[in-house]
Every structure is written in structure tokens, then in C-alpha cells.
Amino acid sequence: MMDMGSIWQRLKPDVLMVLVQIAFAVVTILYKLAIHDGMSFRVATAYRLICASAFTIPIALFFDRKKRAKITWSVLSKTFLCGLFGGSLYLNLYLEALALTSATFMLVVSNLIPVITFIMAVCFGMDKFDLKFVEGKAKVIGTIMGMSGAMLIIFFKGTEIHIWSSKINLLHPNQNSNEQIASHHADFGEKALGVLCALASSCSFSLWYIIQAKLNKEYSSHPSSAALIATMGAIQATIIALCVERDWEQWKLRNNLRILSVIYPGIVVSGLVVIAMAWCIKKRGPVFASIFSPLQLLLVAIAAYFMLDEKLYLGSMLGAIVIVCGLYAVLWGQSKEMKKKMKIIEITRTTENEGHVVISTLVSHDIVVQINQSSAITKENVVNDQ
């Protein structure tokens, strides 16, 4: 029988990922309230990245104090792009869309990020799929489902779904339902712009994944990499905010809500949450961390419905279900491929211990070539069979 300590060790990654999704859900609602309070989302982005930079730099100096990888111009250029697509540009687009649409819609579109990342990875030659294998079919089907779900949300509204009215509306405490319906019809143009910004933010973050993967191969110091990216993003976001927001009153954190919307995302989300996710990914892998993302959508949808008086429509619910199913299809395909690659690595190590060298490829089928080590094969002689 397992004791409580071993049970906790086994469940710790699951508990941490649930807390991570709760933290993400809180910051989404917090940003929605802060923007409605009149806070500039460009200033909010700048403050968040400044806090993230101030939090990650001491961590990088502490953990990399003995050995730090060399920073080249190539590394600096990639951290600049990561700071742009995963920081300043992404957050500006995300908060712009959040201001123009709903919190639930933003989380639905955010679940497209793994699908968009897969498409970009294929275009850049960093990923591939083979329809001869079930995992390749799953990734293609999941991609089609994700895009179909997004189109369903955008072009099909459907009837409103009534669950239970809490009569709590933190955004419009003094506005009645008739005024809200009139405002929904009046700002159709703004909502269309919000949809474009939401899709653009997902594409921006997907591009960050691609560049981050290239950066990880070139620069192995993760704390320093995170600090560089946060610093680059903070500089970019501050320049953007200074150029756009000429009203210095916007930079004043006049109330507790604005202070909380700066400190919480900067330290908790961009600091502690990132560390927790890195630990979970190290323990269980990236696919494990990704499967919890729909939980954030569920939490935000519930909070927005009961606290922000957001409406639920049939089209949005059907689209969200299709997107989440597509997300899991893509993640399942990626998980199968990762397991297959890990199996090849294990076979390679086992055979090397027996005095052989194994060359394997997964282009069309698994090929295992065993060459006796006594033939003095050098690294230059080993060529992957394409």
C-alpha cells in the first residue's frame, strides 16, 4: 500500500498544473476588469514585462553564476524575436482582443495555438506528418477540427444558452439587460477587429514556439534565456507604450485593481507559473502540460458567465468543443510520435551497450541498422537514411 508521501509525489505535477491553469484564468479575468477600468493595455503590457524582467534577472544571475553559455549576436537576435512574438506583440494583440471581445472567446481562440504551431512547424520543416501512420492522420484531423471550430465560432452564433443568472456584473454593475443587448449590436465592427486580433495573437505566440525551439538548441541556459527574452520584451513594450500613450495619467496605478493587474501577472504568471510549468514539463513532458489548457477555458467561461455577465451561445459552445477535440487529437499524435522516438533511443542505447551502433529514422518507417563497433565507425560515417 502506498503511503501519503509517495501519493503526493505522484500527484504533484497534476496538482501544480491545475494551479497553473487557475492562475492563468485569474489573470484573464483581472485584465478584463483592469481594461474596463480604463487602464491602457499597452501600459499594462509594458508593466507586466518590466516586472517579469526584474523577477527573472536575479534568478538567472543566481542559477547561472558559475557557468553561463556564451551570448552571441545570433542568440540576441532570437531573444529579440522571442520577446516580440511571445511578449510585447503577443500581449498587445491579446489584450486588444480581450478588450473588444469576451474573456471566454479569447480562451477558445488560445486553444488553437498548438494547432497553428503544428502548421507553422510543418511549413518551416521542423515537423512532419505521414498519413500512413495513425499519429500523422490524428495531427491532420486535429488541425482541420481546430480550424473548423474557429470558423464555427466566428460565423455561427446560434441561440443564447441560459443556465442560471447570478445578477452579478462586475463590468456593468448599473446597466440593465436591454442596454447590454443594444451595446452588443452597436459594436459589431469592434468585435470583428477583436476576432482578427485574437487570431493574430495566437499566430504570434505560435511563432514564438518555433523561434524558442531554435533558441533552445543554440543557447542552453534556460534562466538566462528567460531573463533575456523578458528584458527584450520589456524594452519593446515600453517603447510601444511611450509612442502610443501620450497621456502620463495612464502610467499612474491609481487603484488596487491596477496595481494587482501589474504585480500578479508579472511575478506570479511570468515568474512562478513559468517555473512550475518548467518543472512539470521536465517531469512529465510538454504534452502533459498542454492537456490541461482546456481547464483554463472552463474556469474562465464559468467565472465570466457568473461574474462578468457574459452570454453563452450555441455556436461558441459547439466551436469550443470542436477546438478542444482537435487540440487533443494533435497532442495525441505528437505524444505517439514522441513515444516512438524515445523507443528508438532506448533501442539505440541498449544495442550500443552490446557493442553495436544503431541508426534509425522515422521518415516512412522505422529502420534499424546494426553495424559492428569493431569496424571503427566515426561520426562522419553515420548518415541518417532519409
From TrEMBL:
Domain EamA: 14-154, 193-331
Name of the protein in question: WAT1-related protein
Coiled coil: none
Localisation per UniProt entry: Membrane
Cellular component aspect of the GO annotation: membrane
This protein's UniProt keywords: Membrane, Transmembrane, Transmembrane helix
Entry GO MF terms: transmembrane transporter activity
Pfam families: EamA (PF00892)
Topological relation to the membrane, as annotated: Multi-pass membrane protein
TM region(s), chain numbering: 15-34, 46-63, 75-93, 105-126, 138-156, 192-211, 223-242, 262-280, 287-306, 312-333
Protein family (similarity comment): Belongs to the drug/metabolite transporter (DMT) superfamily. Plant drug/metabolite exporter (P-DME) (TC 2.A.7.4) family.
InterPro entries: EamA_dom, EmrE-like, WAT1-related
